[in-house]
Amino acid sequence: MSHTRELPGLLARLDGLSEWLGRGLSWLVLAMMLIQFLIVVLRYAFSINSIPMQESVMYLHATLFMLAASYTLRHDGHVRVDIFYRGMSARGKAWVDLLGTLLLLMPVMIFVILVSLGYVGKSWAILEGSPDSGGIPGVFLLKTLIPAFAGLMILQGLVEAGRNVLILTGRIDPDAESPEQHEEHL
Fold first, then answer.
1. Which end of the chain, N or C, is more open, meaning fewer C-beta atoms within 10 Å of its C-beta?
2. What does the pLDDT profile of the chain (186 residues) look like in tens digits?
């Protein structure tokens, strides 16, 4: 068995995309925090209310959670009820992850894309803006995050499926230490 965790070519690049996107989007947390602080100070200290600032927090929040979901998948950070999974061998976990990706993640994400395209298309057709006067005129961009989220999840799902196939075929060692490994142990 090889003692590497490295993925071949395209899978490594797609995996790197999720990593890069997640790390880049993490800065939105700081922006949201600063804007929210400013909103509170302006409201309670100066009685100034700003709809665009309030909406910008919502836009940043949606962008972070929708586009960084693939980063979370990459780092196995989604909620999992792992009563049995925790005690499984690496091959057993690879089987569960592979089947979960192929039978659950992929069909649901394809469904999300198919269902959202009409919804997003109509929003783009009218360049939908905020329902609030003076709000951000970019609701169509916000709605575009839905199929973008699903597309990124499909790409990372392909990476995870490939990784699990490589584990099952013995081409990568799931127990080899990786410099990127940031697993938490309780």
1. C
2. 444 567 878 899 999 999 999 999 999 999 999 999 999 999 999 999 999 999 999 999 999 999 999 999 999 888 777 788 888 999 999 999 999 999 999 999 999 999 999 999 999 999 999 999 899 999 999 999 999 999 999 999 999 999 999 999 998 888 764 545 555 544
